[in-house]
Design goal:
- The chain is an all-alpha fold.
- The protein has one domain.
- This is Lipoprotein.
């Protein structure tokens, strides 16, 4: 270990050498790879999108992908749920729900309910169907509804900031219900986050937190958009009056 410390250029010896080697390490060691940011592929449709439209479209894609990741995680912890769907595998169950969400199809076990009514049924203790599928479908439907019923946005599309804000709060409420509600046997409706002797698993809460944050950011940007439009109008008037070239002849 002393040789390791010397190779690293650390003048430590004895017990101190052990500590130095553990804390300092070699200056030339490469950091642990954490991946890299990747932008979406360019498409002709972007020509009809403002910056806010583009941000909203990317955020929607990430939110839906986040829900699909949550669905996979919930199925892994609650395998009895996907078996209720009648599919042959967890992957098939996920694909079935994904198709229904992206094609804006109703989900049969939700009995025609959409939006927050569907969320309420999916999280009702007496619901007997595939709760994972119902919960993810209902949550996605609520989020899309808050965005005007669309998943892609262009220049003529607008957003209601309050509806977006309400959608973020709805996700927070759903997460709380998921953690607190019990079935008739006193068991959680779905096994998700866990804190116990075996360790901590809060990955579900983190994924939900990302979804909430994206929706809240779009709500804030939407209100800023209208304020900035008014400010730009005033700046244009001021600039038109004071920021003009003067005649020189």
């Amino acid at each position: 270990m002393a040789a390791y410390a010397k190779a690293c250029g650390v003048g430590c010896s004895g017990a101190g050498g052990l500590l130095c080697a553990a804390l300092v390490g070699c200056a030339g060691s490469a950091p642990t790879p954490r991946g890299e940011v990747k932008g979406a592929a360019a498409s002709p449709g972007e020509l009809a999108q403002s910056d806010v439209n583009r941000m909203a479209t990317l955020a929607m894609k990430e939110n839906l992908d986040g829900l699909y990741r949550l669905m996979d995680k919930l199925y892994r912890r609650n395998p009895a749920e996907w078996r209720k769907s009648g599919t042959a595998s967890r992957e098939q169950a996920i694909e079935q729900v994904r198709t229904a969400i992206e094609q804006r199809q109703p989900w049969g076990p939700l009995q025609g309910r959409r939006d927050i009514a569907a969320m309420g049924l999916a999280l009702a203790p007496e619901f007997a169907g595939d709760r994972v599928a119902a919960f993810i479908h209902a949550t996605a439907d609520m989020i899309i509804t808050a965005h005007g019923g669309k998943t892609e946005f262009f220049l003529l599309d607008g957003f209601d900031a309050q509806h977006l804000y309400n959608a973020a709060r709805n996700v927070e409420i759903a997460v709380w219900m998921l953690a607190q509600r019990r079935n008739a046997q006193g068991q959680p409706l779905l096994l998700a986050d866990e804190i116990g002797a075996q360790g901590r698993n809060l990955s579900y809460e983190r994924e939900f937190g990302k979804i909430i944050a994206r929706i809240d950011l779009l709500a804030a940007v939407t209100t800023e958009k209208y304020r900035r439009a008014a400010i730009s109008y005033v700046q244009g008037i001021v600039g038109g009056t004071f920021l003009q070239f003067l005649p020189v002849r």
